[in-house]
Amino acid sequence: MCICDLEPLKKVYICDIKGNELLVKRLLALGATYGTEVYVKNYAPLGDPIIINLRGFDLAIRKKDAKNIYVKEA
């Protein structure tokens, strides 16, 4: 499942990142690596962007980009 399908505050782990090379490099540089604990902190009122928390910081990301982050439950 992708991270944008989660309920807020449910903790999961990143298992894969797909998409174009630039997006993958940017997310990896921000610390979104395999096995990182992550959760959705909040959704914008219209659903885009979403705010995710990983490695202790919040990251606002567009929903179309978040669909490339695949996660699994612990």
Mind explaining what this structure looks like?
It contains two helices and five strands. The chain is of the alpha+beta class and 74 residues long. A five-stranded antiparallel β-sheet has the order 4-3-2-1-5. The longest helix is centred in the middle third of the chain and has 9 residues. It starts with 11 loop residues before the first strand and ends with a strand.
Mean pLDDT: 93
Shape: globular
Oligomer: single chain
Structural class: alpha+beta
Across the major sheet, the strand order is 4-3-2-1-5
List how many beta strands DSSP finds.
5
Key features?
5 strands; 36% strand; 74 residues; five-stranded antiparallel beta sheet; single chain; alpha+beta
List the helices and strands and how they pair.
Elements: E1 12-17, H1 21-29, E2 37-43, E3 50-54, E4 57-61, H2 63-66, E5 69-72
Antiparallel strand pairs: 1-2, 1-5, 2-3, 3-4
In brief:
The chain has helices at residues 21-29, 63-66; strands at residues 12-17, 37-43, 50-54, 57-61, 69-72. It is an alpha+beta fold. It has a five-stranded antiparallel beta sheet with strand order 4-3-2-1-5.
